[in-house]
Amino acid sequence: MRRSFKFLLRPTSKQAAALAHCLEDHRQLYNAALEHRRIAYRKAGVTVRYGDQSADLKHIRADDPGGQARWSFSSQQATLRRLDKAFAMFFARVKAGRTPGFPRFKGRGWYDTVEWPKDGDGCRWDSQPHHPVTIYVRLQGIGHVRVHQHRRVLGNIKTISVKHEASRWFVVLSCDDVPAEALPATGAMAGIDMGVASLATTSDGDHLEHKRHFAASAGLLAAAQRGLARKKRGSNRRRKTVARVAALHAKVRRQRLDAAHKAAKALVAGYDLIVHEALKVTNMTKRAAPKPDGNGGYLPNGAAAKSGLNRSILDAGWGVFLTILSHKAESAGRELIAVNPANTSRTCAECGHCARENRVTQAEFRCQQCGYEAHADVNAAINILRAGLALRRVARAA
């Protein structure tokens, strides 16, 4: 199986400046390649492909010895492949009838990763193996950069990427042939219901705590954003405040990721079979549609309440949690099933009666037909587990 390992870099001030220059030159290369494709098609109707732009790289490097020529040829090819993939996805969306989203130019804050497609070609992991304590990664044009390696790397390293997040630099190793770490069987199974009061609730009645990291940092973020609004564009004070806001958001992201890893690990360790809802978080967090009143105004549409719910869903990080759960389940040899969430919170787990009135409050479920009472999320988790078991029986019988 393939797995990624992410480590914090500890560059010197000169290396940090070189990393910033490397990222900026790759951003400019991406934008120039995009402009090349746009102009060629608009002016002459010619489609420029990756092979054409890759062949032009040697001329670009020869004309810019102090800029583009400093960096790895392979990493620049990876940047051109990134653009080619963006176009491929654009045409795939057009063909599927979805909203296409034409590839865009990358601003300074929207390009944060440089990739080296092969270990040993312009980069080298553990470039100083004789060092007794520290691990280094060597990057062409930058040098040997110290790595804070907090865990062992498994499998065969295929690609090496450097990513800039707020004021920090990270190295990401994508490894193939990572051995699975199968856990001993427990004989237990559970359905989980995602929520905002609790991150998830199991069919056994356990509630995984929702830490609300964004809400906890909302005061600091609001103060930083107000300070940013008062700063003059282009000033050093504004640059520092932007870095402060980015650092706060990065901290929230790391906290949410850490909580998701811990919750997923607990579930994978405790159950052989885990059933969850197949949620479309992007659709669930869309803003409320406006309701014109026919006189040039708008009717109340619950936008404020919907906005608060969206914020709580995104703060819970359902998508991140389910992705991590999927990866951990695969690595541990656990079975994971996704089911349609429709009516799981309205159906009685005791008699099967489905009605909107069964959900008395956010946390209380009382069946209007048989009188069964339970925590609403536990009732939903039981229904989710039953739906997953039914799907598994059908799949095995087929």
Automatic annotation (TrEMBL):
InterPro entries: Cas12f1-like_TNB, RNA-guided_DNA_endo/Transpos, Transposase, Transposase_put_HTH. One of its GO terms (biological process) is DNA recombination. It holds the Pfam family Cas12f1-like_TNB. Transmembrane segments: none annotated. It comes from the Bacteria. Residues 181-287 form the Probable transposase IS891/IS1136/IS1341 domain. Residues 318-384 form the Cas12f1-like TNB domain. GO terms for molecular function: DNA binding; metal ion binding. In the C-terminal section; belongs to the transposase 35 family. PANTHER family: RNA-GUIDED DNA ENDONUCLEASE INSQ-RELATED, TRANSPOSASE. This is Transposase.
